[in-house]
Specification:
about 300 residues, mainly alpha, MetI-like fold, 15 helices
Length: about 300
């Protein structure tokens, strides 16, 4: 009885090998293959290539000047100190004044926020109108608008100086806002036009049949479906406007310099010996806002691009 019970509960044996039947299915691939090793090697080397300068900047900003002069630039700091960061923010000389980057930071905020909001709203309306509310000559208008995005900024500087002077805003933050809004609209209009063209047209037609007008369709239907492309536009505008140097130095005036212009004054200051730790700290502080914005909303950026931001 014991033998019968034991034989009744035993697992069935694998008879495939005994019967000469080969196991089916794909053979498991080894983890380390030549293509995979090459791909990961290139990716790791690329990451090191881009991250190594950042490592040098961070370690240098945390060192004292004696350690920088007599130590290895690639070595980590022996004694960590944040004095260079404090000085870069509050006391570094950016020209005739030594107030650090704090005033320039707030000037950059005052430039970036209205420029981003105004240019994105206008471009969204332009793209929506060019796709769903075409008017006579809309294609010619679109071609001219896109053509303007390929004109070098330097060619337009002098006419824009004259325009802002005649408007009475030259040398103010509003002049920089106006210029960034103008140059941001062509590429943003292209992005929004292509994104709205990829959306189902049945939604627009159904809303028209229900009696919805221009603004009702735009606000109630198009905007809720356009979060990815709005994030793409926000990242592009914040990155481009915050990192801009040319428009800030030309149109802002000496009292309204943005952060990038003040950073240039700190690094190229001819007073005394160069303080490399302060320069590195100021550089990191200047680029911190675009980095934070991109890392926080990076997945939305990829989603917006994949959803039709670059489709023709």
């Amino acid at each position: 009885m014991t033998d019968m019970a034991h034989s009744g509960t035993s697992r069935p044996r694998d008879t495939s090998a005994r019967d000469g039947v080969e196991p089916r299915g794909r053979k498991p691939k080894p983890f380390f293959t030549l293509p995979k090793v090459l791909i990961y090697s290139v990716l790791i080397l690329s990451c090191l290539f881009f991250l190594f300068p950042l490592y040098v900047m961070i370690t240098t900003s945390l060192k004292t000047m004696p350690e920088i002069r007599f130590g290895n630039i690639f070595a980590p700091p022996v004694e960590f100190t944040g004095e260079a960061w404090v000085k870069a923010w509050t006391a570094a000389c950016t020209g005739l004044t030594c107030e650090g980057l704090a005033p320039g930071f707030w000037n950059s905020v005052k430039i970036t926020v209205p420029s981003t909001i105004i240019s994105i709203l206008i471009a969204a309306i332009n793209g929506y109108a060019l796709v769903n509310w075409r008017f006579r000559g809309s294609e010619i208008f679109f071609v001219i608008l896109i053509f303007g995005s390929f004109i070098p900024y330097q060619v337009m500087l002098y006419p824009l100086v004259i325009i802002t002077r005649e408007l009475g805003i030259f040398g103010s933050l509003w002049a920089v806002v106006l210029v960034h809004t103008i140059f941001g609209m062509p590429i943003l209009t292209l992005l929004f036009r292509n994104y709205f063209a990829a959306l189902p047209q049945e939604l627009f037609k159904a809303a028209r049949i229900d009696g919805a007008g221009f603004w009702r369709i735009f606000i109630s239907i198009m905007l809720p479906m356009s979060l990815p492309i709005f994030v793409v536009a926000i990242i592009l505008q914040i990155t481009g406007i915050w990192n801009d140097f040319l428009f800030g130095v030309v149109f802002a005036g000496t009292q309204n310099y943005p952060m990038t212009v003040q950073l240039n004054n700190i690094v190229n200051s001819a007073q005394g010996s160069p303080e490399f730790n302060v320069n590195m700290a100021a550089t990191i502080l200047t680029g911190l806002v675009p980095l934070i914005v991109y890392f926080v909303s990076g997945r939305w950026f990829v989603r917006g691009i994949a959803a039709g931001a670059v489709k023709g």
